[in-house]
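INTERNAL AUDIT FORM
Audit reference: QA-55
Scope: verify that the stored structure record matches its stored sequence.
Auditor: D.O.
Record contents follow.
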Amino acid sequence: MSAFPSDEQRQAIVRAAAAILVVIACATAVRSAAFAAELRLRPRCQPERALVLLGDVAEIHAADGETAAALAKIELGPAPVRGNLWQLSCREIQDVLALRGVNLASHRFSGASTVAITAADGPPSPSPREDRPVGNATIGRATDLVRRAILQCLEHEGAPADAWAVQPSLDTQQARLIAESSSELSIVPLADLAQGEKPFEVTLRGVGRSQSLRISARIAAAPACVVLAEGLTRGATIQAADVREVPLPELLRGQSGYFARAAEVIGLETAQTIAAGQPLRSDMLRRPLLVEKGRIVTVYSRSAGVRVRVEARARESGSLGDRVVVESLADRQTFVARVSGIREVEVHAASNRADFAE
């Protein structure tokens, strides 16, 4: 018996091998069709924009061009500054995509296990989001985040946060990165935390990397306000022991009308009931009433060097220097007089006398 296969046996072997290849090809085609796209990671990349996109780190192959374009525009994070290297692993890319709502089971990953990302040689081009103007809301949110982080630094140094006024200075790119980043923000002072313009380093820590920004902020003592040590009812006269000076709450800064020094309110009278600890505004207090509505007052009238004294009834209440309407007891005529003392008013007959309708 021959050790070599016959012609018929050779043909049978060839037919079986061809069938196996067809099965393998079909299985490969079915497996490829099961994925919406294949993401083949590059070993390295130099993004030209300030934000790293998925299309920068991976070749994206998909039967649907819209799917490939949408995946390519997904943002992975800010590009590293010149001289820094960002090693981004396949697992970290998958984590970011999952956070962006991408169904990882629908896509296939291949290529390099880690992408080395470095800054481009030239200045970065604007990212798709950076060609939009930065709105006041974005700047305000970023400024508030940085301000609160700096206040936490001050508290850590033993200074009460409400004792300071902090005003960060951010450019538009810094404001955008801070306001729109989902990364954790931390801040480190680069100088002592005394008053004045101080430098800080802001770090945005994301998945597998961090981004550092150099900013400055002005630190100053918070504006003061006057509060009551204990609540007072309407009509109470404020004494020195009733008030104290404290930092004005942050929410009220920028508003006018609040007293800053205790000496400004001593001797004034409350125009309403005021709770303890409430910052005092000018509309809450008044000078003590020297003339009360409905009470008899003495009217001093001066004319050509002659001083006449009569009595009248006050139609209004008033403090020293206020102009109030009074009514003559003799003929019930009304006229305006200026409060000059306790239950005393004065009028210059030649210029101030006038009748007023009731």
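Auditor finding: record pair retrieved intact. The longest strand covers residues 209-221.
Action required: none
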